Amino acid sequence: MLHRFANPARFSRIAARVLPWSATLTGLLFVAGIYFALFVSPADYQQGDTVRIMYVHVPSAWMAMACYTFIAVMSATSLIWKHPLADIAARAAAPLGAGFTIIVLTTGSLWGKPTWGTWWVWDARLTSVLVLFFLYLGHIALTHAFDNPQRGAKAAAVLALVGFVNIPIIKFSVDWWNTLHQPASLTRLDRPAIDPAMLTPLLLMGLAFMAYFVTMLLIRMRADLNAARARALQLSAAE
Amino acid sequence: MIGLTLLVRRELRLAFRGGTDAMMGVIFFVLAAILFPFGVGPDAAILPRIGGGIIWVVALLAALLSLERMFAADHEDGSLDLLYLSPVSLGQLALAKAIAHWLTSGVLLLIASPVLALLYNLPSSAFLPLVATMALGTPTLSLVGAIGAALTLGARRGGVLLALLLLPLYIPVLIFGAGAIDGAIAGRDIAPQLMILGGFLLAALALAPWATAAALRQAIE
Question: Region A15-23: what's the mean pLDDT?
């Protein structure tokens, strides 16, 4: 099963067939999600319209974490079974994950300014997302740090697994650190009993972000495979 | 086990004959810590408050300095390939390198840290916690650092890359190291922090040589 999809040519064929559908699905979900988020869902009685930032903020936070998990799984697949596509998938996913963390951080501070009165708080959650962002940057930098792309991919795979083991430790340390130093002055209601009118756009946007991730991942993986083929052709032409 | 001691002894001998290299880390440690009072002012009320944290941050950076060369020299002259072929496993090699790194950097930082505590006017109740956290924390830095050193072997701009990879992973040690000193100054019980630092050390001791060996294998092949 695993090795049925190990053939890059077969993967490219399947990806080419899936892409139009996933791209259309992404578009439809985004249109529906944004429509519900901006027009159908009510403004919050306390936060007003700023609550709508949540419909972008929360899905990208989900995706930022899911994407790192995806990279870790791909890295393990690459190291254990030497699956040729796993490295490409991990390399393709890392910048997407970094992008999601940037969206979380920027939308978070845009929401924080009117609501908390400050762009940034050294809150445990914010800090751990910031650390996650740097883990992504380290992964991307290590992938591209070698003349031999294979070596970069393998090193990045080991790093992703080390990071994956460390994320819970970092998360728990940061939680402890913040509660130890100062009592949380700006606690955020974590998951209030959310109104269905707000839940619908949130879930729609979550699905839209996921479909977007799949679409971009397929595009990036195909581009990567094609670039490798172009390089090989150039080399054989030069000989 | 014999292989491990032999390797550690080899590393130490190389470090001693190399001369001043090992001292550079400590000199950097003291110098960088001295810069902060110039930046924030010599206020006797502020310095003890930030001293513990600064000493720990600077210790992280000083440990980073010598990590870059951990495997590089052996990689360049080919002895890493010979060690790979020798009966000593890569995991043992990684552990030996980390132990040697700690003996040539961490221990020196440990010795120098009370001097910095004096310069920062830390109360005497904080001295023992400072040394205790350094003793538990710096081996973790060496062990985790070995993973980074092996991963960046042969990379372009290895030094900056190493900092980018390792500093996020060092955050937990920093939090509990500095937290214990703050706690001691405030008169709290610091046993939890010390136990957590000890836990980190044990986890790193079990897992880091393994990850370093995996990284080394990618670098050699």
Answer: 92
> Are A158 and B157 in contact (CB < 8 Å)?
no
Task: Kindly report, residue by residue over A73-90, the tens digit of the pLDDT.
Answer: 999 999 998 888 899 999
Name the pLDDT band for A187 (thresholds 50, 70, 90): very low
What value does the mean pLDDT take over residues B123-132? 91
In the 3-class helix/strand/coil scheme, how is chain A assigned residue by residue?
A: CCHHHCCHHHHHHHHHHHHHHHHHHHHHHHHHHHHHHHHHCCCECCCEHHHHHHHHHHHHHHHHHHHHHHHHHHHHHHHHHCCHHHHHHHHHHHHHHHHHHHHHHHHHHHHHHHHHCCCCCCCHHHHHHHHHHHHHHHHHHHHCCCCCHHHHHHHHHHHHHHHHHHHHHHHHHHHHHHHHHCCCCCCCCCCCCCCHHHHHHHHHHHHHHHHHHHHHHHHHHHHHHHHHHHHHHHHHHHC
Q: Do B165 and A138 make contact, defined as CB atoms within 8 angstroms?
A: yes
CATH number, domain of A136, equals: 1.20.120
State the smallest CA–CA distance between residue B16 and chain A in angstroms. 31
CB contact under 8 A, A166 and B169: yes
CB contact under 8 A, A158 and B218: yes
Q: Is A225 on the interface with B (CB under 8 A)?
A: no
Residue A7 inside a domain? The answer is no
Residues of B in contact with A134 (CB under 8 A): 164, 167-168
B62 pLDDT more than 50: yes
**Complex-level ipTM beyond the 0.85 threshold:** yes
Instruction: Please count the structural domains in chain A.
Output: 1
